Amino acid sequence: MRKQMAVSNSARSADYKQRLEELRQNYELTAPFKRGMVVRRWLRSQLGCHASFLSTPKIKRFLKTWDLVRARKEASVEFGGNLIASDPSPKTMSLDEITSKRIHREQARKLRDVIEWGEARIGKYTRRCPRVTFDNDFQAEIYSWQCVRVRMDLPDSLWDSAKIILQFFRWLRRLRKKWREVDDDLILEFRESLRVKRTGKERINKIMGVIHSFYRHQERAGRLRYRVQIYAPDALPAEMLEYEFPIKSELRTNVSKRGVRTHSWSSPWLLKGKESSYGKKVTPTDPDLVTVHQNFHKRNHGTRNSLIFSAVEDSGGRVSEVLAARVWQLPNIDQFNQLLNSGGKWAIQVKRKGQDDQLGETAPLYFSVPVVMRMLSYASGPRADIIRKSGSPADHLFIKSNGQVPKSGTVSKLATKALREAGVHNSTIHKVRSKFIKDRIRERLATARAHAARIGPASNWTETILSGSAIDMNHKSPEALKPYIDDIFAEETANGGPQTLVDLETKIREAKLHIADIEARLATLVALNRIVAMVELSPRKDEILAQLCNRAEELLRAA
Known about the structure:
By secondary structure, the chain is mainly α. The protein has helices at residues 9-27, 40-47, 57-72, 95-111, 140-149, 155-174, 184-196, 201-221, 286-297, 302-315, 319-323, 333-342, 369-380, 382-390, 408-421, 431-449, 461-473, 482-495, 502-537, 541-558, and strands at residues 33-34, 37-38, 114-122, 125-134, 137-138, 250-255, 261-266, 346-350, 363-367.
């Protein structure tokens, strides 16, 4: 079978131009017309071209004359054709000009979209507020919208909203659209593109809400006029009562706990129903975790990565929260002896999700004795070696070879790779938190069963247990944890009773890992002692010791 020859871009462009001329001759006064222009989607469907073809300067001038003719509904005397003719005097550029233009385009492409922290003045206080640069232009419209929201939302929420708006602006850029041209059709098209990418329903609804909030603010600020539906019928002129807003809204009534009613406009394009992420990924079991820790120790920084994984499992904290721990927050010798005698847990205060670090808000992560022992061993061993070699004054507990704090995304990727090598393909380090919360719920169930006759899915004790577990997980509501306790009750029904010895098995596994860390640190000393014993038995002992001393002095001077 002969392979078809590829059509060049110039030949394809000439073919599109010829079709466009024929299309105008046949439909000059009857083409679909909307908002003062011939519908571009109809043109693309008729020509079979990409949207970028209609955005070239020559085609835009041709279509602009067609738009004017179509608006007057009078045929043009002179047809503005001749699209196929090439420019009479093409500009020639030298190789240096071409290279410099290419480098400039690549640099501009890297720098044109940026989110960075700025400041907003709120009364006598100064709060952090994201500043968005899009296409190398500072977006004052986004910044003014964020300055209004900074009174109510935390910096993390503001940053996420800035990322959502930048994502939407980039999508509009691919369609050659401006943000002022957006209507419900484009918003729905963007929503469907998110659904194609398997974005979760809750995330899609948040994105729709952020976009609608942005456009509501622009309408209130006067940058848009009668484009977003935020007006009550009695606030509109009589001639606009039947007007259809390009961006529609729904008026919703909220009732507070005290019975106060408030009204607000919201997006009508939210997806209905609730969607839970529970069960979509695999929660690793205890044998899987043993293999994961073995895989960690085979690589560089194995002790550190294994300890981070254990800290997430032991405290239920997120990776970013565990990485925020400082070395000075570890217990000293006296405090550790008290902790060892009491058998309690050590608390480390860190900024957790949903807290404002500018106000100094923190929450504790609780670590058991075996994990604290491994932290102290790591701090006095591998971490101390890194500090001595790099000279870094870092006070974070977990650091890289250069003394900097590793990024949470990098640690998550390493954990995902270790889980995949252990045979757990559809799991992440975040699912270790699922194992943590199930263990905590089992502990609370065991405590409650020691004081109550029976506890089942319909018992009032379940709400109390879930409320306490939500505090452990730093969740705002216990509703998201209900699938976990339902799963535990189902397991107990299948196994014929509640599981036991879960906490003891975890302590044994952590103790084994601590022993493995100590063995790794002592491996060098064991090898050194073996060499000394062999030298003692050698008849050339004095000569070998002299050479070893000289070599050691050379290495120390070089270091």
